[in-house]
Design goal:
Elements: E1 4-8, E2 12-15, H1 20-31, E3 36-39, H2 50-63, E4 71-77, H3 84-93, E5 96-101, H4 121-130, E6 134-136, H5 150-165, E7 171-173, H6 179-186, E8 192-196, H7 205-209, H8 226-237, E9 243-245, H9 254-257, H10 272-282, H11 289-301, E10 309-314, E11 323-324, E12 331-332, E13 342-344
Parallel strand pairs: 2-3, 3-4, 4-5, 5-6, 6-7, 7-8, 8-9
Antiparallel strand pairs: 1-10, 10-13, 11-12
Helix pairs in contact: 3-4
The structure holds N-carbamoyl-L-aspartate and zinc ion (ZN).
Amino acid sequence: MTETLTLRRPDDWHLHLRDGAMLAAVLPESARHFARAIVMPNLVPPVTTAAQAAAYRRRILDALPEGMAFEPLMTLYLTEDTDPEDVAAAAREGLVRAVKLYPAGATTNSASGVRDFSRIRPVLERMAETGLPLCVHGEVTDEEVDIFDREAVFLARVLDPLRRATPGLRVVLEHVTTAEGVDYVRDGGKDIAATITAHHLVINRNHILAGGIRPHYYCLPVAKRETHRAALLEAATSGHPRFFLGTDSAPHTDAAKLAPCGCAGCFTAPNALPILAEVFERAGALDRLEAFVSLNGPAFYRLPPNEETITLRRGTPAAGPARIDTAEGPVTVFDPGFPLHWSVTP
Ligand code: NCD
Ligand code: ZN
């Protein structure tokens, strides 16, 4: 049995770092394991301009503890008023690595998202010319569509028409949760990839709802039935180059999660890698973990993979922290519900 596993240092291609006290508390949890992350722009107010992205990047670097290395890869929050030239200039400088599309109202802090897709056409055309990826929250927000169908409906109703209308647009279908999404990406050619979270490889909708409601498992897109989890697992462990890790680690305080209308988001930054090692090992795919966490993402984003390495060690299961303390209150760490044999060596 493998006892240690050395990988190129992983990156996280979808991460919520927040701001202020929350940023200070959660950033080390990612920086400990990941070299870089695509940082989501859904702050309040959202990061919509290059100048705001530069300022947010600075706040992240200022919050990084002495001696830790981490490169935030910044994104812009696409609105109906986004200026194509501002985006193109920020991409040329290397400041911005992707633009994020939230359908208005789809998830946490998405009120400024897109309602009328015809209004973002000039930006998308500019992005298709420059190769800058569009990260997509792939859910429709139509109240008439069942929440468990919102991703599949989005593919047919929004994403596919949008891609056909903008040839060459490079798209990342973020936090894919369905077999339909996996198939769409696998059959979609070189310009589309998907991120997969650690938690969607572990839970299905029963974990959220059967035997009591578990708010810490509630995130968006919501976990679907078991057949979908199996499809995600197959895609992640297959070695297919257009599937890679985006943890979507999304911290909310326990007070915000455990409320009558609780926030969506799972906080997985501290244990995403040990969970993935466990999941890949059970699937007999430990040899493909490096592709999923360290190689496929940089290849799609046209960045070099990291040169440094990390080592995971297999041992007696050790419980990680159940929660972390922040100045805003405790934040519960995602509990996979099984013992974790792998830990990242310091
Ligand atoms: C995210 C958040 O809290 O910002 N929540 C989530 O459930 N994933 C937003 C998002 O990525 O949808
Ligand atoms: Zn997210």
